[in-house]
Amino acid sequence: MILSQKQRHFLRGLAHDRKPVVIIGGAGLTENVLLEIDSALAHHELIKVRVNADNREARKQMIDEITAKTASELIQSIGHIACFFRRAEKPVIDLPKN
Asked: In the prediction, which pLDDT does 84 show?
């Protein structure tokens, strides 16, 4: 799904007050963590994930892997927090038109 700038802006606003639902710890991005992220996306559509990595490059690599393996869109990444969106079969969030 390709999101317009208006839709990304809308989703960033919705994500602002949310807390991270998944925290990636010292073990890194394991298969169980990916399953938890996938499950959270299926239920909530828009989630925050805290990516605890040693450096920026490692964080970026984990974020890229999450978007690829969960077929989600990265909405925003600030520091250790990343927001992801994936449309559910029965949409929960009503996105504005382009």
From this structure: 98
Query: What is the 8-class DSSP label of residue 91?
Result: -
Identify the domain containing residue 27 by its residue range: 5-85
Q: pLDDT (tens digit, 9 = 90+) per residue, 56-71?
A: 999 999 999 999 999 9
Query: Residue 95: inside a domain, yes or no?
Result: no
- Counting as low any pLDDT under 70, the low residues of the chain are none
Query: What's the CA angle centered on 88, arms 28 and 16, to 5 degrees?
Result: 65
Calculate the CA 38 to chain-centre distance: 10
Q: Which helix (H) or strand (E) holds 74?
A: strand 73-78
- CATH at residue 68: 3.30.110.60
Please report how many Cα atoms fall inside a 13 Å half-sphere around the Cα of residue 18, on the Cβ side.
20
Query: CA nearest 18: which of 36, 45, 38?
Result: 45
pTM greater than 0.90: yes
